[in-house]
Amino acid sequence: MQNTQAINQARALYYRLFSSLFAFVMKEDRFDGIENIIQILKNSAIDENAEKSLENMDRIIKSQGLSFISKEYDTIFYDLSSDPVPTTASFYEEERDDGKKRLMMVKYVLKSKYRKDSEKFSDLEDDAGFIFSFINKLILDEISGDENAKTLEKEVFENILNDFIDEFIENVYMHENSAFYQEVALLLKIFIEFERIFLDIKKPKEKIKVKKEKKVFISEAEEKRRLENKRKKSEEIVECVLEEGGDVEDEV
User: Does 1.10.3470.10 match the CATH number of domain 2-205+213-240?
Assistant: First the structure.
């Protein structure tokens, strides 16, 4: 029992780290605290490869600073001229956001005691950053003895995260501007493999990829306009993107 509790505490910390690194946050201090989490996880890493990735992440932060991480994040996920990485389960399922996977995630959220704070978190419920944060909360509830949270966390992993996370990791790792996030992708891959063993969930069959046509170049002005619209939706993001109670978005 004590061993399971210790594992769950470590799992919650990993999900918290990935939530901080992937959730859309427009604050100068958006990555504050990740150094401490990295240090804690380094002391009890899943394996040698995880420890190496954590050490490399720590080294990059110390040498380049958190502002470098912030710029790399924006380039990988929101720079329309550099083929940004999609972040929602729906996109990987249907090649569009706001699809069936989002509706599934909304139902899971409604089964919990949490609701998305739309004013503080502008991305969709099936966005990777939101999913990481949601599972983090469920694990903390499980540690407190909530059996419903334990069941829910496994369902979310199996039916939402598990289906797209491998392709998401590959896209982050292979992005031309990925340096710090290449190490994050390696760490996330190791952690997901551990989660599948811990939760007794099989890796999904690899999807057949269809080569897409090259995207039309978007002007710098249009790119800035779209990114600014994205930022306006999220002027005030706090570290915890979920709050107890409240309502889900009106359109849900």
Answer: no
